[in-house]
Amino acid sequence: MQPDSLYIGIMSGTSLDGVDAVLCRISDDGKPSFVARHHEPFGPAIRQQILDLNTSLHDELHLAALTANTLAKTYATCVSGLLQNSNVNVDKVRAIGVHGQTVRHQPALGYTIQINSPALLAELTGIDVIGDFRSRDIAAGGQGAPLVPAFHAEVFKGPGTRVILNLGGIANVTILRESGEVVGFDTGPANMLMDAWCERHTGLPFDEDGKWGASGQVNLPLLEKLLTSQPWFDQPAPKSTGRDMFNMPWLESILSQFPDTLLPADVQATLQHLTALSVLTALERAGVSSPDLFVCGGGARNSAVMQLLRELGATSAKATDVLGIPAQDVEAVAFAWLAWAFVQRRPANLPQVTGARAERILGALWPA
Ligand SMILES: Nc1ncnc2c1ncn2[C@@H]1O[C@H](COP(=O)(O)OP(=O)(O)OP(=O)(O)O)[C@@H](O)[C@H]1O
Ligand SMILES: CC(=O)N[C@H]1[C@@H]2OC[C@@H](O2)[C@@H](O)[C@@H]1O[C@H](C)C(=O)O
Fold first, then answer.
1. How many domains are there within the chain?
2. Which of 54, 186, 362 has most ligand 2 atoms within 8 Å of its beta carbon, as the pocket-test mutant?
3. Whether residue 249 sits in one domain with residue 192
4. Nearest protein CA to atom 17 of ligand 2, as residue
5. Which residues of the chain have a pLDDT value below 50?
6. Ligand 2 atom with the shortest distance to the CA of 105
7. The pLDDT of residue 164
8. In whole angstroms, what is the distance from residue 332 CA to residue 334 CA?
9. Distances (CA, A) of 316 to 5, 36, 259
10. 298 ligand 2 Cβ < 6 A
11. What pLDDT, on a 0 to 100 scale, did the predictor assign at position 1?
């Protein structure tokens, strides 16, 4: 085993379900192989704190600093879980790549904020920490997101045109063409609205397998309104989005234009359609109809959405497990790979995806 080829990737995304972490070995030419995974769910308090920080609050700088410390401690718990599971010594890990927690994303205004305390994580783990992966791309005029298309191109390219679809809180796609061309962009909301609606009406944090939504009927006027009331859906790439744009107040403002006799399960069914249709419409606009979809993120486990993707136009929709990386691990492995790219001082953004003026080395180092 090459002692310097083990990397940890830590992702806590916009769904706010918790932290996904992986330990993987990365070869000299950037190919990852899996060693161990660890998931640390968020408790209700930290989850609410992060949700609160997505909007303006009294003394939010104070709350952000405390939340950053709590997150770093949770990330450190993941690291020790990984090392225990795999029997690997801390000094064998070359670096941790950690995303942090997005609470604002405003690339047009020149910023994106990922709450994090990489210094505390370095202190708690004794491992080099690479964080702050998005800000350099934004400084170069880019969206700072999505970043994973470069990683998808590295690990998932294959014969024909492949489309990688991440169904996280937000959905994003990467189109990998046989010619080597890579296109990627966010397509809109996925789990974040479905989770919030499910929690409000069933008390459960998410709609397991999409069963509750599948028990309802899509409401076509509501679907139409959701798709047309946000001009962002029609904007060309480069594009990215977040909770700043798609959130419960946005959904509620649209629902207020409909009779309150709408059944909650029908709204959930309509949100499932919104997820699938916004993905397929955006792909069609990018010149890909009837895609072969390889799906990652927690939404790959939502059988109802996976079925809708097939019914509404995809030739196939399979979890990325068939390409060698389990759906739930893809983003965490991507951040291990981004850390590897930083260590190599290798640029990791794709300017044609993010809109940055050129390639840039992404991230910053907090030494052990
Ligand atoms: N069995 C399941 N059935 C339906 N949905 C599920 C299931 N398991 C997980 N999910 C969904 O997946 C979500 C977590 O997905 P994931 O970890 O990919 O999101 P994320 O990384 O936070 O988001 P993003 O990619 O936008 O940053 C959960 O909040 C839930 O909505
Ligand atoms: C600003 C931000 O955190 N964006 C996330 C979010 O979650 C999915 C989608 O929106 C994607 O653009 C991005 O995450 C992945 C890891 C990315 O940068 O590729």
1. 2
2. 186
3. yes
4. 146
5. 1-3
6. 1
7. 98
8. 5
9. 35, 29, 36
10. no
11. 43
Instruction: Give the closest residue (by CA) to ligand 1 atom 12.
Output: 298
Count of C-beta atoms within a 10 Å radius of residue 356: 23
Do 242 and 281 share a structural domain?
yes
CA angle 65, 69, 75 (to 5 degrees): 140
Ligand 2 midpoint to CA 339 (Å): 16
Ligand 1 atom nearest 305 alpha carbon: 4
For residue 146, say if its preceding peptide bond is cis, omega within 30 degrees of 0. yes
Tokens of 9: 């990737």
In this structure, the residue with its CA closest to atom 25 of ligand 1 is 168
Share of the chain above pLDDT 70, in %: 99
Q: How far apart are the first and last CA of the chain?
A: 22
Q: Which ligand is nearest to the CA of 191?
A: 1
Domain span including residue 223: 157-323
SS (H, E, C) 327-367: HHHHHHHHHHHHHHHHHCCCCCCCHHHHCCCCCCCCCEEEC
- C-alpha span between 37 and 21 (Å, rounded): 6
Owner of token pair 């080099």: 128
d(CA 277, CA 310): 11
339 and 240 in a common domain: no
User: Is 112 part of any domain?
Assistant: yes
Residue with CA nearest ligand 2 atom 12: 146
Strands 316-319 and 93-98: unpaired
Model pTM score: 0.97
Residue 183 has a pLDDT of 98
The ligand whose atoms approach the alpha carbon of 208 most closely is 1
**What CATH number has the domain bearing residue 248?**
3.30.420.40
The closest-lying atom of ligand 2 relative to the alpha carbon of residue 186 is 12
ipTM of this predicted structure: 0.99
243 with 336, same domain: the answer is: no
Q: Give me the phi and psi of 83, to 5 degrees please.
A: -70, -35
Give the number of the atom of ligand 1 that is nearest the alpha carbon of residue 170: 26
233: left (phi over 0), alpha (psi -120 to 50) or beta: alpha
Query: 329 CB under 6 A from ligand 1?
Result: no
Residues 312 and 337 in one domain: no
Cα angle, residue 298 at apex, residues 294 and 301 outer, rounded to 5°: 75
43: DSSP letter: P
